[in-house]
Amino acid sequence: MQLQDRIAIITGADSGIGRAIAEAFAHEGADICLSYHSDREGGEETARRVQAAGRRAVVAQCDVGDPASVAALFEAAAALGVADLLVNNAGMGMQGMPVAEMDDEKLEQVLRTDMKGPLFCCRAFIRLRRQHGGRGRIVNISSVAQYLPTPESAPYGMAKAAVGSLTRSLARELAEDRINVNNIAPGMIQTPMTQARIDDPKERESSFAAIPWHRAGQPEEIARLAVFLASDAGDYVTGQTWVMDGGLMMNWGGA
User: Fold this and answer.
1) What whole-number distance in Å separates Cα of residue 41 and Cα of residue 77?
2) d(Cα 158, Cα 79) in Å, to the nearest integer?
3) Is residue 36 flagged as an active site residue?
4) What is the pLDDT of residue 252?
5) Which residue in 36, 147, 156, 236 is the catalytic one?
6) φ, ψ of residue 87 in degrees (nearest 5)
7) Residue 29: CA atoms inside 13 Å, Cβ hemisphere, count?
8) Are 138 and 168 within 8 A, CB to CB?
9) What are φ and ψ of residue 35, in 5° steps?
10) pLDDT for position 139
11) Which of 91, 160, 181, 215 could tie 142 with a disulfide, CB 3.0–4.6 Å?
12) CA neighbours closer than 13 Å in the CB half-sphere of residue 9
């Protein structure tokens, strides 16, 4: 097993990509502290799946954009031991809000969750690992939106680009601590956030036409890459963003 007896904190693991990563890590031998924001039932279902794989699970409510809530998450994780791995998956989307019409409250919510949230979690993880001699792995989850234009959702693209920048900066900052920092930028993945688009025939046809693979990705595909980046097999990889989008970015100019 690639993650035998490791302890992972995974934010936003109540569904979708976060749940898939929690399950994959558990099957590779890791114990999981998973967070949810409002879907407690979803978080508990993920915990049941982790336990079905024979590993321990702790479920904690967390608003990643609130430093006090992040501190409480790390306190909850301590019930499993000292965390070795951090996956910053929690986030929120937005659409249909041009900059000129942007609501200040919505803007703050998106930036606090999608940009500040990973930073707050990384800060807590770094402090923890330094108390225990360094080493560890951080895997951030951003989006192809960090590279592509995001009309009517500019703050979302801004935040995801910031996660890519954070990844690069921390990789250099933490090299002497031997803490690897990498980022996964998914394209269209079949999750609760995208399900409505996939279920609508016109939306699905339009979306898939822009993807050379002509399908949505599956959360489990993202999870397999996360396992590699969190494992010893990925030790020589740091500061990188890995795009998984079925070729969407390669097709963007002609789509």
Assistant:
1) 19
2) 35
3) no
4) 67
5) 156
6) -120, 115
7) 9
8) no
9) -110, 155
10) 98
11) 160
12) 33
Q: Does domain 7-254 have CATH number 3.40.50.620?
A: no
Burial, 240: exposed, middle or buried (Cβ in 10 Å; 0-12, 13-18, 19+)? Answer: middle
Domain boundaries, the chain: 7-254
Predicted local confidence at residue 194, as pLDDT: 82
Tokens standing for residue 188:
């269209």
Cβ neighbours of residue 101 closer than 8 Å, sequence gap 6 or more: none
Instruction: Output the tens digit of pLDDT for each of the chain's 255 residues.
Output: 899 999 999 999 999 999 999 999 999 999 999 999 999 999 999 999 999 999 999 999 999 999 999 999 999 999 999 999 999 999 999 888 999 999 999 999 999 999 999 999 999 999 999 999 999 999 999 999 999 999 999 999 999 999 999 999 999 999 999 999 999 999 999 988 888 888 888 888 888 988 999 999 999 999 999 999 999 999 999 999 999 999 999 886 544
Q: Which amino acid is at 138?
A: I
Q: Read off φ and ψ for residue 201, nearest 5 degrees.
A: -55, -45
Residue type, 172: R
> Amino acid identity of 53?
A
Whose tokens are 């790390």? That residue is 74
Calpha distance 213→36 (Å, rounded): 31
Whether pTM exceeds 0.90: yes
Sheet holding 179-186, edge to edge: 57-61, 31-36, 7-10, 85-88, 136-141, 179-186, 241-244
Helix residue ranges per DSSP H, 96-149? 104-111, 117-131
* pLDDT at site 255: 45
* Contact (Cβ atoms closer than 8 angstroms) between residue 15 and residue 191: yes
